[in-house]
Amino acid sequence: MALLQISEPGESPAPHERKLAVGIDLGTTNSLVATVRSSVPEVLLDEAGRALLPSAVRYSADGEPVVGHDALAAQAEDPSNTIVSVKRFMGRTAEEARASAAAYDFVDAPGMVRLRTAQGDLSPVEVSSHILARLRSRAEAALGDELVGAVITVPAYFDDAQRQATRDAARLAGLNVLRLLNEPTAAAIAYGLENAAEGVYAVYDLGGGTFDVSILRLTKGVFEVVATGGDTALGGDDFDALIARHIAGAIAGSDAWSRHDRRALLVAARAARERLSDADETTVGFQLQDGTLVDAPLTREQFEAMAAPLVARTLDAARRALRDANLTPAEVRGVVMVGGATRMPLVRRAVGELFGTTPLTDLDPDQVVALGAALQANLLAGNRSPGEDWLLLDVIPLSLGLETMGGLVERIIPRNSTIPVARAQEFTTFKDGQGAMSIHVVQGERELVSACRSLARFELRGIPPMVAGAARIRVTFQVDADGLLGVTAREQSTGVEASVTVKPSYGLSDDEITRMLADSIDQADADARARMLREQQVEARQLVDSVRAALAADGDLLDTQERARVDQALVDAEAAAHSEDVDAVRAAVHALSEATEAFAARRMDRSIRQALSGRKLDELT
Ligand code: ADP
Ligand code: MG
């Protein structure tokens, strides 16, 4: 399904008619804003001529928050009031945030974590909005007018909660969000892949805090993301942490270092790692709070030995994405490198080896995402130039479905479906006269609800009384262009309807996504067995219910002996419905059907007689 409905390419509007739209890369480490001028995307610079705005905000008891370089410079001296990598906490609970081992005062709050600062408890949405507001004023200063809107990028792996949080942050910053765009997709746009020959491309994005890999397929100017994978908790920061552990490990008393000292070490570790992208050796130099100077040597060889397992993890994720797309590395024509951490020679080598091709590094890996977002924003604002008539397709990372009887998942939208997407399926009632149906929306790859993630629950009420199985309830899942899910349930005969927009209270952690995918593969056999068992159990319960109803209506058709046999079979089937032995359940269902065969035939006769009684023969022909 097309994401953008593109009409005939027209003339470029005159400059004064152009609507000012920007693309924003709201990064974990660095954020950027870009726009399209004279058909060329360019990053907008700050007063000092810098493109990158460090995603750091420092809060003090009074005064405006300090955003960017100045905040970053203060991080060692005022760590708990200087928030960095806030993107990791977007849409997350305090529990999840604490698991990230970041050194902040996390405050439990309904829905999303809050961070304790000198300016009070702030949500990650507020902190992000301060970064976005800074980029907005940078853009308005550079362009000399108000913006009509912005395209904001998010990692492909961001779930609904994280996307919603990003939208909220933009709104708080006074930005009109034209669209959220997956970062790897934006990078592909920046590289102009839509003009390239047809084929499959991979986008490998290793930033400060997240890793994304996407597989894109190009056909006739249309490109589609056919698979995504990655790790929302793996980036340059983790490489810094390895160096820090290595350095601290060699210094006596480092266990007792203050927050300040640990931050100072991390800052020095990052600088050293960046230098090692060009140099063979360097030193990790910083000052402890007590005045001690540390100056530890580090070679690229040492660093690469430490870093290899992290790089291997990114390659595993890349292989998984390829498998999802049913592709081999050799079928990938080119690999786009995105994110500052792809400057590490080890990463470039490893990626080149996996795909058997030299990765594309022509565009500044820090800027590609913002440049692509600017092109997209320009298009959405209506400033299209001739030839810019491409379509764009994204996918959902994990399957979406519903809970059905027996705790089973009915998958409605499979993982890696391109969005926007709408799928509908009909369900029916389980019991006679059932007046309400509860809808439980889940996400994940497993057959059992208990192994998936619960996204939302709602009830459809006012279903007219009908026998079990007669009601027709159409459930529609709709994922919009931003990856947000809306679910609607509608009873077809009366038109009663209920719906929910999924805005889950917290997000999936990266580990959860990885675990859910790995489990779905490991557990496929067990799941299939469990599904069979649950289905048999549901069948047993349904049969028990209907035999009970039949006995109540027409019990007089049975003599005492027959009745005793049916009652016994009922008791057995009821007990079997709770058994974990699929064969036992099946046998009990079979026995109950057999025991009630004659009874069912007699009921049929009776109902036919009733239907015919009092009618003349000619009315029936
Ligand atoms: P994000 O998308 O998370 O905001 P960026 O794409 O800006 O991240 O990448 C930031 C990361 O890139 C940091 O971990 C930084 O250390 C790393 N980086 C920047 N320059 C270099 C370099 N020359 N060598 C190695 N890593 C680098
Ligand atoms: Mg990035």
From TrEMBL:
InterPro entries: ATPase_NBD, Heat_shock_70_CS, HSP70_C_sf, HSP70_peptide-bd_sf, Hsp_70_fam, ISC_FeS_clus_asmbl_HscA. One of its GO terms (molecular function) is ATP-dependent protein folding chaperone. This is Chaperone protein HscA homolog. The keyword Secreted does not apply. Belongs to the heat shock protein 70 family. It comes from the Bacteria. GO terms for biological process: iron-sulfur cluster assembly. Transmembrane segments: none annotated. The gene is hscA. The keyword ATP-binding applies. Keywords: ATP-binding, Chaperone, Nucleotide-binding. Chaperone involved in the maturation of iron-sulfur cluster-containing proteins. Has a low intrinsic ATPase activity which is markedly stimulated by HscB.
